[in-house]
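Morning F.,

Quick status update on the modeling queue. The single chain you submitted on Monday has been processed. Sequence for confirmation:
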Amino acid sequence: MLSKYHHWWRDAVIYQVYVRSFLDSTGDGIGDLAGVRAGLPYLKKLGVDGIWLSPFYPSPQHDHGYDVADYCDVDPLFGDLGEFDQLVGSAHRLGVKVLLDIVPNHCSSEHPWFREALAAAPGSPARARFHFADGRGPDGSEPPNNWHSMFGGPAWTRVTEPDGRPGQWYLHMFAPEQPDWNWRNPEIAAEFDRILRFWLDRGIDGFRIDVAAGLFKHPQLPDSDDPEADARTRDSVNPLAWNQPEVHDVWRRWRSICEEYTERDGCERLLVGEVSVPTAREHARYVRPDELHQAFFFDLLSAPWDPDAFRKVISEAMQDIAGTGSTVTWVLNNHDQVRTVTRYGEPATERSGLGAARARAAALLMLALPGAAYIYQGEELGLPEVVDLPDDVLTDPIFRRTGSRARIRDGCRVPLPWSGQASPFGFTPGVESAKPWLPQPEYFAEYATDRALADTRSFWHLYRDGLQLRSALPQLGEGTLRWLDAPPGVLAFERGDLVCAVNFGTAPTPAPVPGSPLLASGPCPPGVLSGSTAAWWIRS
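Structure tokens below.
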């Protein structure tokens, strides 16, 4: 019975490492696995329980590693398998778990199986691993259906057949360099079983699953009533391409593999999914006891800065997701989102002030909620979005496909500043002439890690203190909450004798909750953690 094991993941705080932007050990301007290993003491000091590594597999990097050419190796950009093994060993010696990002919905157009499919004939077993179809119209020159890619433009690309004639089309819900796997072909399930075991045998603690509501498409591939919905929203909302019922069988299969390894050595392996579905109730279906352990709950991230909106999404999550026996997995940011300080700021270019105050408050609120939490790198520094990158350095395939800067993701992926007054800000230790793969603005000096650690008022200390209290106080982590009556514009709840309150700024002053010593500012009495417009305290 799995109940005999410590469910470490239920209230864990995991730090997302975007490998190419974390720390560069070679001076080529691209972060790598050795850089992650060098940064482990920093993460241990911050107080996180584990790390999630963005894809580092061999890839032509059309979507920065989410176009995988080989699922069982390391791209030379980032190191090799030996370096990976050292990273896992070093992390485990520090008590830090390691999660890998796995991409089962699609691969790279350079993957050997896709190259084999291009060289094969229509109707061949090689093409059956993907979604190849004849085009419409008298000469097959129109796509097989009207679906659009998440990154803009048609979700289909026509191939040139081996004899040189225009031929079939293949499906890609993202970039053309990312063909979708056909999960109705049993070869795909068997291949991913092999991939999971390859990494589990190397000692990892689990997987973050990209596009976990994807994989299966409607078997008839019919036209959509709203074909541009995915591109318009940058979300997986086409009901014919996402959230098909068969996907749950995959997660049951993967859960059984993880439980096999758990039984083998007593260390529970985690599956956490990137699940984008319309409601918390549908989200809950992915975390039933025999499927994923957890799935990111994005509703908190997308909620407007409003106490009623926050209370609604938190309550729905607690009711629908926690009711499955799982715990809610809270997030405020990741590598696909505008950074929190900027997202909450007014105007959007703001680097401090209102956006920073709200981001600090949101961090305290998230860390006080029952369940697990994921922190995107740089959030603990209060980094803003870099909104003025020049066009000629942008690498996001969304920009390449649409020509639009709307919702592009480069601005949250700029390499971290570690020290110094000028780029590369310690990102390439010992190689001050190195040029990071995305340019760092001059103002990054204000957010460098060395300055953050030295300033007890910084975001870093807010996160570190919150994580320490979360570990020390039995009220926090897993469990429940009870909402408290509060003045207009204030959201407050208690967990045991600990109270968390957030002033959303609609009250004319930082109005205190009745009986509390403070809400928003001023010296903190013992046992209280305060962050701009939010505070924790212990009831006397």
